[in-house]
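Researcher: Predict the fold of 4-(cytidine 5'-diphospho)-2-C-methyl-D-erythritol kinase.
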Amino acid sequence: MMMMAATAVASSSCSSSSSFFPCSRVVFPPRGACRSGGVRPPPARYGSSPSCLRRRASVRAVAPEPKAGKQQQLEVVYDPDERINQLADKVDREAPLSRLTLFSPCKVNVFLRITRKREDGFHDLASLFHVISLGDIIKFSLSPSQTKDQLSTNVSGVPLDDRNLIIKALNLYRKKTGSNKFFWIHLDKKVPTGAGLGGGSSNAATALWAANQFNNCIATEKDLQEWSGEIGSDIPFFFSHGAAYCTGRGEVVENIPPPISLDIPMVLIKPPQACSTAEVYKRLRLDKTSNVDPLALLEKLSKDGISQDVCINDLEAPAFEVLPSLKKLKQRIMAAGRGQYDAVFMSGSGSTIVGVGSPDPPLFVYNEEEYKDVFLSEANFITRESNQWYREPASSTATNACGAGSGFSSLS
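Model: Structure tokens for 4-(cytidine 5'-diphospho)-2-C-methyl-D-erythritol kinase follow.
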């Protein structure tokens, strides 16, 4: 039998420890749902743990070699930081998920071409969609109910039944996967409705992502993207990485590298009046739309950056017919913001006007009674990583022109 003599040359201990682990001041991160972004910051690593944990334990064992009569030395190094991280990762993987809070960002259409009307009554489009940092916060909790989801929100006028895209998305997920999980959902609404910003579509995409986290990610991102097109044309876009060239009804999504710097600020200005998408399309005349090749717009944007001449929106003219004051607002922003904005355009079917290049609105918005109730928000372009959801910006605000605002709540 081989005899071994072991000598400890370094050790780690902490007299203040009050748990199974030495130096129990180390706090485990909350469970991460399949390492998804947007749920919470990435799990903390422990390089900054107390000094007693930073000292690594080294053990040398010396044993005779049977045949040669020589001694063989083996050194084993034990790293407490690494061990604690391994245990935290195991908890991360195995602890059941019961609550989840996600950021649900909206989008702008940097350009939007309508190319034809289809036989099914829909229109084909070609557009650069880009996610921005304005968004809602949605909290999901597992419900004991086996029959229905329960939705609440902080604003009035939002349907809470299966007319809401969040509920539609959860029903769709259960239909596609056979999941039997139902949820309590609270929607903290920051994105205005009827704004052309895709807030409802983003909510639906976020709900699909959340449901998949609660079900151990049994569907791929591609699955979620394809399924989502069944309940809304803009929803598949949010499963891109944040910048995409979209065609068809909007459901054909081509991921592209962000053609615009993420550091460029913008301001969103929306009057209280909304634009009905159906009404805007009713007034659309294809013979009056631009004939510029949308791929040429994308190429110019990628090469030269954002400028007024690439920010074409074929829905502006019919939207201005539906809401004449919107045309006046855009013209005034362009006139007052010369040198301030690189481009001013309407997003989607309206009624939000976007000024790219500055986070500040023109002064007339604050000074004139006519605009005291407009919605204002600064924003930036944002993206996400694969297998992570969008992260809430560190600080963002949305206000009306009188200054009544609400900062985004932090993730929990």
